[in-house]
Design goal:
The chain has 2 domains: about 25-190, Rossmann fold; about 190-360, no CATH class. Helices cover about 35% and strands about 30% of the residues. It has 7 helices and 15 strands.
Length: about 375
Amino acid sequence: MNKYKKNTHFLIILSIFFCNPSLLFAQYTDKWISLKYESVRHKPNNFYFMKVVDERKNRDRIGSIYGENQVEKSLKLSGGTVKSLQNYFSKSFIKDSSDYPIIFKIKELLIDENTVNSKIVGKCKIRIAYSFQRDTTEIPLTDFQTSITFNRTQGDYNNYETLLSKLIEKSVLYFDEWMEENYDKNQKLIRSLRLVINSDYQMENPEKGDTIFWSPTRKMTWADFTGTMPKTTKYSAQIFNNFEYIAPLKLENGILTINLQMKVYMLKSGSWTSSTSLSEYSIAHEQVHFDLTKIVVERFKQKAKQLLTIDNYDSELQLLFIEMYREMNHFQKEYDDESNHSVNVFGQQKWQQFVDGELRGVR
């Protein structure tokens, strides 16, 4: 009989304990807060927040605070951190889908409190990374971090919404100013690429000092060969011709325009002849050397149209230049070999027909 009475008392104690959850779960109490929205929606500088990404290790809360009776609580955003921020952005800012889609990446978002001399000292911290979603590529742009320190008396506290909203507002203001400063300047913000191929440099006015630029209307003469003939050579003439490119850039409304312009030229002082009374046949041989360089440049232009990408346009242009320079040297050597420096008439005619066909209609 006594045994059953003892068990009955034990069950009553257990029942009282489990029916009062505050006794068991007091240290795990949650405090839910919401971000404060302004009544006026703002228009950001050429961007909108496409999505919010939370990269924190502990994503289920935004801090640890003290409530009444020094009860420690987990501070959480209503609906979850990501959803709460998404709602905040949609209600606070006007979205224009033609603007830059920006990823708001949470690296740190924390409100933490400690007791110091019967007072509570708190710190609210935020660290955000911003990136631009270009098609399927994420482009890192800039980072922001700041913090607010506060002191308060013990007891419950209801100002966390204001503190957190201020930090979020500061982070957005920072990025808004960054976009205003970098828009149409920072090449990270390139959304598309436009290649404009201009007429070759000095095409309409081909002679400039020591330089003659290739032109369909300006053929070379022996008077253009003003260089000094080497003391030891088996040739009667030689042309110094080359090509270069310039590519000034302009970023506007996210479109990077590359204004490609080629320079195809020969230097008078670098080109020489044994006699200015050599035949027209001989000068025609040197003209083909010049024309071959122009052919390579035309191929350069066509390849550039198909090759350039946003991420690597500069290095791609440079590599293309090296490739086409090698092709030019190969052309020149093959031409001299097959024409035997104009001695082989049939070889000379073959290459003359080749350049005439390649350059037909070219300007």
